[in-house]
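Exercise 7.
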Amino acid sequence: MSRLTRWLRRLPGHVLMRPFLGLIPALLAVATARADADGPDYYRVSGIAVGGSLAIRSGPGVEHSRIGELPAGTDGLRNLGCQGGLTFAEWEKATPAEREAGRKRRWCRIESRGVTGWVAGWFLTEGEAPASPAGPVGAGQGPTFDCARATHDVERLICGDAELAALDRRMDSTYRAAVAVLAKVADKTAAQRSLRATQAGWVGGRNDCWKATDKRQCTKDSYLRREAELVAKYMLMPGSKPVFYVCAGNPANEIAATFFKSELPSVRLERGDTVKVGVATPAASGTRYDADFGVSFWIKGDEVAVEWPQGNTFTCVVRK
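Solution. The predicted structure, written as tokens, is:
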């Protein structure tokens, strides 16, 4: 249903009486002229390879400057209207080649996580609305800890926020899944003890969000980052096929990267006997993943700029 139709249906009946009937042709003309600005309320990034990203630009075209990046699979992009491409009448008459060329002329203005800009419309499909904004917590919808005993500012914030409480429940499920994975390893007792310790450390870090200017956003980001880390480290969802990168021109120096479509995209990096887990972070271009101890993995096309360990930088390329 078009936005114009939804708007007209919300109008009281008397508004469409005779004094206003003369406006209807004009409104329909506007709707026809702007048909390419209609469509779903929200988009999702589609057709981008795992590990890649879609550029957000300041205007509708590649000649405009990049102002951000959207990792592959990003959902909840609010549709602010599109331009370019073919009208339906033109599409009906076009050849397959003309339809494909028209598709690649379409640019859409979107808003995602406070950033507004233009993206190539041919990499968008209908998506879902992002999680509900902050609101009161309903009965049975609280976090996994006892709110009656919450003493920390951040804990009280979570107890009064439906979205944060839902993230806390989701984190509990993700953590339990990681514990279950470790139950199958030979040294499960020690491995599970280590996981409990790092999870407790994460809770302390989450609670440090009371120092942040935007306490709620800091808390939400903390949940999403930790979830992405657990997903990639313990492979809690299907990942991509590993992508192998040859580093510093030495075939013996190789990194295997497996990408995961967690809400905050993540990557599992294997180099020799070492495993690092990176989480997508904003970058001026390409897709950047940051791991602990200063390790970073910044993908730009078939090349990646790596810092591992901190202070040691080198370039890798996809193994052909």
